[in-house]
Amino acid sequence: MNYITKKFFIILAILTCQNTFAQDNSYSGLDRAFISNQLRKSADQIKVLASLTPDDKFPQTFVNGKSVFSNSSWWCSGFYPGTLLLLSEGNNNDKELLKLATDKLKFLEKEQFNKSTHDLGFMLFCSFGNALRLTGDSSYYNPILINGAESLSSRYSPNTETIRSWDHGKWKYPVIIDNMMNLEFLTQLTKITGEKKYREIAIKHANKTLKNHFRKDYSSYHVIDYDPNTGVAIAKQTHQGAFDESAWARGQAWALYGYTMMYRETGEKVYLKQAERIAKYILNHPNLPKDLIPYWDFDKDKLPKESKAYSKKDLRDASAAALYASALIELSQFSRGKDSHNYLSKAASILKTLSSSEYFAKLGDNGGFLLKHSVGALPLNSEIDVPLSYADYYYVEALLRYEKLL
């Protein structure tokens, strides 16, 4: 591992492990035994998933008693090997899980050259990025990550100052709020390579998203369509939410996580303020259930009865909750006073609920996935009330982030 890579991971560890408990000794949350137990149970369960997964496929979901797998080009392909790596880390460097992960990565390598998607942060950084962090094998993993960052950067336009999300549909130049999650990949590659352009693209994209994606109440639109020549926002819509002006629950999670991360990476207070405003929107919303596991859309009650989604409007989304928990844990380390305490307390509550039998699957059930009750895209009738690989990933990440605070 070279000096820049070592320095990056040392700084990241320091930032993510600042001690909130030192700020407030009265805090009472999850204990080490709880976290360790959930990490062990998760490891046992994902080994079931591994036994069911073909060598060249990636777990996508489990529907009506049947496993669904994807090819490496699916946007979620990096989450399964990433979760294996996180669970190896969380279970005393479990060698079986590490081998399962590294074996699977061989089938994901080719996506480093995939210029047709903006999801390379999910696909490559959650997988190969964690592998680099845990193994230190920079000679093998760095070239893959560098090629991936180049592929992602190829989708950036100086006209719009954003990374294009999709090449399909009715839009001219669509950018979705999910794209905030791919910026960490770029900021880290600047640290690894010294190439400033990756970080500059991430900052410009974050700034343009900050300008156009949010309403006055700090809820986020899902899709912003830009004029590719002028960079002017010409439409504000949804694709997976209830309707254009609704607050899709997971979209708010991408925003919360993304701006918290961008503050960590840059120290720019405008990102911290935005993350705190998004957090307050989520946590103070009257439609957020008491157990803090959100409905799939905060505005689901405004759906017309004739809508195809109306009969399922009360479904929860565990994937959004897992993201909230992970982001709030990190945000609690950057915020101060009551806000810091509140964010960490809410994250602990979410993790408790997700770890209950209502959401955490029994060993051998749920097709080997950890969490039940996520929603992919209800209006598209896709992945409704099923397990999803990214719900598992961010759940485990949140457990590890919390454990580091102990």
Textual characterization of the structure:
This protein has 406 residues and is mainly alpha-helical. The chain has one domain (3-405): Glycosyltransferase. It is 51% helix and 9% strand. A hairpin with a 4-residue loop joins strand 3 (156-157) and strand 4. Helix 8 packs antiparallel against helix 9 (196-212).
Assembly category = single chain
Compute the number of helices: 14
**Order of the strands making up the biggest sheet:** 5-6-7
Radius of gyration: 20 Å
**Helical content class:** 40-55%
Count the E strands.
9
CATH topology grouping: Glycosyltransferase
Sum up the overall morphology in one term.
Answer: globular
Order of helices and strands: HHHEEHHHHEEEHHEEHHHHEEH
- Look at the structure and give the mean pLDDT: 94
Descriptive keywords:
406 residues, mainly alpha, Glycosyltransferase, three-stranded antiparallel sheet, two-stranded antiparallel sheet, 14 helices, globular
Describe the structure concisely.
With 406 residues, the protein is mostly helical.
Secondary structure layout:
Elements: H1 3-16, H2 20-23, H3 32-52, E1 58-63, E2 66-70, H4 79-90, H5 95-105, H6 120-135, H7 138-153, E3 156-157, E4 162-163, E5 174-176, H8 183-193, H9 196-212, E6 223-226, E7 233-237, H10 249-266, H11 269-283, H12 318-334, H13 337-354, E8 374-377, E9 382-386, H14 389-405
Antiparallel strand pairs: 1-2, 3-4, 5-6, 6-7, 8-9
